[in-house]
């Protein structure tokens, strides 16, 4: 999965995160976990398994099946919002 | 032969471009060309005598309110609003020419004044700080704005919160406040100072009467104000007042949904709204009693505390 971070602008308040996506013109209010995932992908493309592993570590939880499903669901929603995209060449991680 | 056809030169002169009246509404110069005397009289009642012609004051909006089709004049005379080459609305009854002009100017501003981030909000000022009242139609925004304007707050605007996204200040646009239906007697009862124009029955928004903007607001229409408070009002008949502090992120999201041109401005609009929200303390307010709401807003903590 990957993010084109050039078009993103952030406003951070009170633990909430608002992100503006220039490519779609949409503004999104994100909670902490989707923000963590999005910021992780801003550093570079990652396999979904790596996103799950690193986010579990960051949140101090087990990277078990339930967690992986949760991360996949978040990635699916971010993809639906066109904030992230699938890449077939994701070699990192 | 009627009077009009006997004096074609006079009629042509009255309708010629440049033969209108000019007004200043905050940052905008407006030129209104109209042959309708009753419209000119209402404009003078509401906004005072027209501005004197000055070549250096180029009108930002040049509009016309003209007669509708000739065949309708004997029984159902109509008025037509035009802005340059645009005719954004179907004709109104001639007797509704004033609300037609006011709504037409709203259309002009909303579609063209993109040097501002335009919030759909009432805006008032006290002690140099602006109170922003963003709301969807039917929330009681205009009634509340009118009540505050009659209670010592300076009226900046009822419809447009004009945010200069370069400097972060809100610019006044003190025009008539259109009160609808039950709001008309509510404001009459609220203050003996309320100067209401004629009631226009059965417009597309129901019965409408305009509150004349206070003299002080008109006189100070070139003085911007620094944003201080954001309150999202919602009138619910019979409900007690509930004032709830809002998280900045929630206020930001709601403001972005209440702006005319937020999406059009893109990243500029996002940055402007972020700056605005950071500056202000934010609440939502549900109210069923106008006096209680006005009192609560007068007790809001100072923005800098």
Quick structural summary:
By secondary structure, chain A is α+β, with helices and mostly antiparallel strands.
Can you tell me about this structure?
The complex is a heterodimer of chains A (93) and B (305). With 93 residues, chain A is α+β, with helices and mostly antiparallel strands. Chain A has one domain (5-80): Arc Repressor Mutant, subunit A. Chain A has 3 helices and 3 strands. In chain A, strands 1-2-3 form a 3-stranded antiparallel beta sheet. In chain A, a hairpin with a 2-residue loop joins strand 1 (8-13) and strand 2 (16-21). With 305 residues, chain B is an alpha+beta fold. Chain B is 32% helix and 30% strand. Chain B is built from 11 helices and 16 strands. In chain B, strands 6, 7, 8, 9, 10, 14, 15 and 16 form an 8-stranded mixed beta sheet that branches. In chain B, strands 1-2-3-4-5 form a 5-stranded mixed beta sheet, with helices on one face. The longest helix of chain B is centred in the middle third of the chain and has 16 residues, at 97-112. Chain B is globular, with a radius of gyration of 20 Å. At the A-B interface, strand 1 and strand 2 of A face helix 8 and helix 10 of B.
* Count of spatially separate domains of chain B: 2
Number of helices of chain B: 11
User: What kind of oligomer do you see?
Assistant: heterodimer
**Mean pLDDT value of chain A:** 89
- Give the neighbour order of strands across the main sheet of chain A: 1-2-3
Q: Let me know the number of strands of chain A.
A: 3
List the helices and strands and how they pair.
The complex is a heterodimer of chains A (93) and B (305).
Chain A: E1 8-13, E2 16-21, E3 26-30, H1 32-42, H2 48-59, H3 65-80
Antiparallel strand pairs in A: 1-2, 2-3
Helix pairs in contact in A: 1-3, 2-3
Chain B: H1 3-6, H2 8-15, E1 21-25, E2 28-33, H3 37-47, E3 61-67, E4 78-83, E5 92-93, H4 97-112, E6 116-126, E7 129-134, H5 141-149, E8 154-157, E9 160-164, E10 170-171, E11 177-180, H6 183-190, E12 196-203, E13 206-211, H7 215-219, E14 226-235, E15 242-245, H8 248-257, H9 262-265, H10 267-279, E16 281-287, H11 290-298
Parallel strand pairs in B: 2-3, 7-14, 14-16
Antiparallel strand pairs in B: 1-2, 3-4, 4-5, 6-7, 6-8, 6-9, 9-10, 11-13, 12-13, 15-16
Helix pairs in contact in B: 5-11, 8-10
């Amino acid at each position: 999965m990957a993010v084109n971070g050039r078009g993103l602008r952030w406003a951070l308040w009170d633990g909430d995160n608002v992100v503006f996506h220039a490519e779609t013109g949409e503004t999104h209010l994100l909670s902490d976990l989707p923000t963590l995932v999005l910021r992780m992908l801003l550093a570079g493309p990652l396999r979904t398994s790596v996103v799950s592993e690193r986010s579990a570590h960051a949140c101090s939880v087990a990277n078990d099946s339930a967690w992986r499903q949760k991360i996949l669901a978040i990635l699916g929603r971010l993809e639906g919002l066109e904030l992230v995209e699938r890449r077939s060449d994701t070699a990192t991680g | 032969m009627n009077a009009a056809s006997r004096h074609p030169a006079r009629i042509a002169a009255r309708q010629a471009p440049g033969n209108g009246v000019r007004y200043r509404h905050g940052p905008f110069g407006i030129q209104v060309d109209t042959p309708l005397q009753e419209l000119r009289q209402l404009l003078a009642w509401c906004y005072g005598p027209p501005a004197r012609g000055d070549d250096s004051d180029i009108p930002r909006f040049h509009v016309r309110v003209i007669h509708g089709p000739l065949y309708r004049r004997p029984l159902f005379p109509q008025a037509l609003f035009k802005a340059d080459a645009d005719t954004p609305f179907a004709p109104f009854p001639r007797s509704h020419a004033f609300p037609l002009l006011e709504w037409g100017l709203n259309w002009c501003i909303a579609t063209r004044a993109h040097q501002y981030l335009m919030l759909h909000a009432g805006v008032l000022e006290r002690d140099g700080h602006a109170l922003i009242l963003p709301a969807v139609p039917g929330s009681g925004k205009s009634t509340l704005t009118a009540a505050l304007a009659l209670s010592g707050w300076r009226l900046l605007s009822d419809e447009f919160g004009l945010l200069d996204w370069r400097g972060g200040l809100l610019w006044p646009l003190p025009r008539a406040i259109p009160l609808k239906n039950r709001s008309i007697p509510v404001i009459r009862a609220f203050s003996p100072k309320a100067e209401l124009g004629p009631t226009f029955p059965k417009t597309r928004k129901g019965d409408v009467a305009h509150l004349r903007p206070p003299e002080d607001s008109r006189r100070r229409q070139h003085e911007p104000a620094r944003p201080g408070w954001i309150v999202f009002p919602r009138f619910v008949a019979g409900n007690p007042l509930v004032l709830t502090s809002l998280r900045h992120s929630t206020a930001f999201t709601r403001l972005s949904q209440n702006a005319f041109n937020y999406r059009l401005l893109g990243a500029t609009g996002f940055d402007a709204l972020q700056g605005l929200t950071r500056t202000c303390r934010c609440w939502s307010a549900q109210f069923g009693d106008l006096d209680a709401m006005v009192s609560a807003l007068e007790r809001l903590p100072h923005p800098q505390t």
